[in-house]
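Hi support team,

I submitted a single chain yesterday and got back a structure, but I'm not sure I'm reading the token output correctly. Could someone confirm the output below corresponds to the sequence I sent? I've pasted both exactly as they appear in my results page.

Thanks,
R.
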Amino acid sequence: MRGLGKYWGWAVFAVLIAAWLTSAFGPGVLLTLSALSTVYFFFRVPAWCGASGREGTCRNNSKGVLMGCHLRQHKWQKFKLVVVRERWRQLARELFPNATSALATVGGVLAVLSGIASVLQPFWGKGW
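Hi R., thanks for writing in. Yes, this is the structure output for that exact sequence:
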């Protein structure tokens, strides 16, 4: 993608926040916007790879904060950080190395929480 097309997720996230603040949409729309934002931030946002290598931290471009760069080993390294419990501390360090990755991580976490809240929204007033 060229130009502003690779930043479409930020617009979706802005609409999601506006939807929550105005209560203009139902839970289905909120869940859809949350899912799109989550996919964008974790798997599509332009970011640096950040995988550990022989020469230090990889500075290649990657898509998403949970994906590695074009190198297959870096993709597996990032995947193992999510799956293997002993590496979660290292994952936390790699999700916040710079402002771009930190914003994408916070946006992704907020999108996940928004999705959970949109599913639970119909039950809030019913005293479950």
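A quick pointer for reading it: The chain has a mean pLDDT of 87. Let us know if anything else looks off.

Best,
Support desk
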